[in-house]
Amino acid sequence: MEKQIFNTTVVIMLFYVLIMGFFNALIGNYILVGMIGFTFICLLYVYKLLRVNNNYKLAYYLFGSLAYPILIFNFYFNDGNAGPTFYIFFLVHMVMLSISPINKFIFWSVLNFIFFVLLFYAGNFFREYIPQMYGNQEMIFLDHSITYLGSLTGVSLLIGTIKQYYVSQKRKVSEKGRELIKANRDLNRVNSQKDKIITIISHDLKNPLQSIMQTLELLKESDLNQAEIEYLHDELLKITTRTYQMMENILDWSSFELKNKQVKIQETDLRGLFENTLEILKVIAKQKGISLEIIYYQNPIVRLETDRLLLIIRNLIQNAIKFTENGGKVVLEVSSNEDEIIISITDNGIGIPEEQLKDIFQLNIKSTFGTNHEKGTGMGLHLCHQNAQKLGGRIKASSSPGKGSNFELRIPNGFD
Questions:
Q1: Do β-strands 329-336 and 291-296 pair in parallel, antiparallel, or remain unpaired?
Q2: Nearest-CA neighbor of 322 among 373, 278, 279?
Q3: How far, in Å, CA of 65 to CA of 166, rounded?
Q4: Nearest residue to 100 via CA among 220, 203, 9, 18
Q5: 23-36 pLDDT, tens per residue?
Q6: Which helix (H) or strand (E) holds 159?
Q7: Rounded to 5 degrees, what are φ and ψ at 226?
Q8: DSSP H/E element including 66
Q9: Burial call 342-355: b when 16+ CB within 10 Å, e when fewer
Q10: Closest CA to 242 of 374, 403, 69, 411
Q11: Which residues pair with 375 in a beta bridge?
């Protein structure tokens, strides 16, 4: 701040000195014109130290050490107490205070007062030794008026510069404060999400992994017949599949929440995009005795983030399988209109109670159980909702308890 004020002050004083030099030349006070020329050169050097050499300390001490000797010279050759030197005293003092640290305030104030008292004393009691430069009262009035106006302008500009800097810094502090609040809010959100992920991993992954370990130990150490071994194999497959799906959800969700992934846009048809994913989901459905029917009314071409779309489809179908009884049915229907694609997933499962349906897409970090006690994380539908929004689309859910549910996804085809 001090450097900026010092720069501005030196520029102001350069203009002030030029005006005073021109005025003293008009009234014929050429001694002061010479002194003003010397002052102008000193101020230029101070300005160079500040702007070019970036040497604030030397500029500060040079300015302070030259100011009062120049004022003494001006006092002597400008009619002493009858002249306007003491106006400049106040201006110089204001400048020194504005560019000095607080611990130097007393020094410069005392110095200013001492010089003022000494010069005022000399002007009163040794007046005969001071040259009389004014020719008439009009010149006294004019010199005082111009000097006072210059000093008043200098003080006003100085205070204006300080005020402007204060307002600017206050605005910057306010902006930084808002940025810090936002950063703190984001950090708290990320930490909260991390805590949730850790909680999920510690509770929802630990138990299935322990179950897998125990089953493998049982296979290794126990004397089992073929039917029991096949049963344990089936259980291992179920546990491993559920654990993998759970881990996949967690990783997808954490990546979505905590990272800014680069958008990867692909252009493809939906039948080709869904083929591999649906084959895996058919196997999962078959293990539960559920029929997964796929109907393409059209095979639209899309241009979008295919990973997000696959994530939504995978979660919605897995969710439908999870909450459908053995022997039930899940239907995937794909259609499109001019601007968007419509994907509907319908099941004849247990349905969703009305009180839960209104908050179905909210984050609910707790384990949920399917019709075969399949354990989930409560993140799947929230993850679908977030990714649908990222694709510029929306998901609508409807359900009848005991009869089944329907989820309809509408997203732009990406060719707008």
A1: parallel
A2: 373
A3: 28
A4: 9
A5: 778 877 788 888 88
A6: helix 137-200
A7: -60, -40
A8: helix 56-76
A9: bbbbbbbbbbbeee
A10: 374
A11: 369
| CA proximity to 366, closest of 350, 353, 380, 377 | 377
Label residues 96-120 b or e (16+ Cβ within 10 Å = b).
Answer: bebbbeeeeeeebeeebeebbeebb
Q: What residue segments make up the domains of the chain, in order of their start?
A: 2-177, 263-416
Q: Locate all alpha helices (DSSP H) within 259-379, ordered by sequence.
A: 270-287, 306-322, 354-357
In a 3-state reduction of DSSP, which class is residue 63? helix
* Cβ atoms within 10 Å, residue 11: 14
Contacts of 340 (CB under 8 A, 6+ apart): 393, 410, 411, 412, 413
Record the tokens describing residue 378, joined without a space: 């409560």
**Whole-angstrom Cα distance, residue 140 to residue 216?**
110
Among 3.10.180.10, 3.30.565.10, 3.40.50.12780, 3.40.50.1100, what is the CATH number of 263-416? 3.30.565.10
0.70 surpassed by pTM: no
- H or E element: which one contains 410? strand 404-412
Contact yes or no for 404/349 (Cβ under 8 A): yes
Model pLDDT for residues 315-365, shown as the tens digit of each residue: 899 889 988 998 999 999 999 988 899 999 999 999 988 888 888 887 664
Tokens linked to 403: 């009869």
Report the candidate in 309, 312, 302 with the shortest Cα–Cα distance to residue 413.
302
Interstrand relation of 266-269 and 301-304 (parallel, antiparallel or unpaired): antiparallel
Give the tokens for residue 333: 């229907």
What is residue 55's DSSP assignment?
Answer: -
- The SS3 call for residue 308 is helix
